[in-house]
Amino acid sequence: MESSLSYALYLGCMIANEEYAYEMSAREVMRELGVELVDLEGESCCGSPIRSLNTKLWLYLAARNLSLAEKTGLDVLCLCSGCFESLLEAKHFLDSERGLKNWVNRALALEGLEYTGKCEVKHLVQVLHDDLGVEVLRKRVKRELKGLKLVSHPGCHLLRPSRVLRADDPEDPRKLDELIKASGADVIDYPEKLDCCGAGLLLMKPEGTLSFAGAKLKSLAARGVDGLVTVCPACHLVFDKRQGAISRQMGIERIPVIYYPQLLGLAFGIEPEKLGIHLNSSPVEKILSRI
Length: 291
Description:
Blueprint: E1 6-10, H1 12-17, H2 20-33, E2 36-39, H3 55-72, E3 76-78, H4 81-96, H5 98-108, E4 121-123, H6 124-132, H7 134-140, E5 149-153, H8 175-181, E6 186-187, H9 206-223, E7 227-230, H10 233-241, H11 243-250, E8 257-259, H12 260-267, H13 285-290
Parallel strand pairs: 1-2, 1-3, 3-4, 5-6, 5-7, 7-8
Helix pairs in contact: 2-12, 3-4, 3-5, 4-5, 6-7, 6-8, 9-11
């Protein structure tokens, strides 16, 4: 049965300019599920990179994107966890402080826009797990990924600050694990599940990023897992595209890193190229060879 769900798709900067595979796979999977994605015309940066330098400018940029989504009458679907955190926390402040909301709307009026706070901000994990449901996904599976031992990396911005986001239990997140299980694969729990990938250090202290991510990958390599599943472009960039440098620095065997919609798409029987599998830098062919 086709879904009647529709969302305003917010891609943000990183996905639209670098992590194309995430967008490709998400669009393919949503099409298979009958979910309509409406592109936001004129969207811009979520404001997160300048938040610590200019709080009001961050709020303006976030509110601008939210006001564009409000014009569609749909809730916002974020693929990027950083954008999800930025837009949702900005919404929290704007809905709580009338003075900030009035200031933002005076600025938005120059473009003929207005922020009302009517739309919700959701991450892909929430849409798939909460709105559609694990059983709906499981029924669409054409090729169960049995025998694969996978681990999840929820990432920081999907879970924290928990007083605002509440996308999952910040201390014991399970939604991504349950989504992975819907593909037929096994999910392995591990102590380092909540550890940061280190992406925040990439520009200032890249060797720190390699150490953060390397410690996690070293633990997973020792456990003999078949792959790491991500839902954030920044986390994926570190674990996937930087894994060669991490492997050389830490002396560990490389492991496949795959976006969740890529994994789900494979279970749906979608061709790997349509899911952008060829754009992954880690040895994802190991997963393909097991299917």
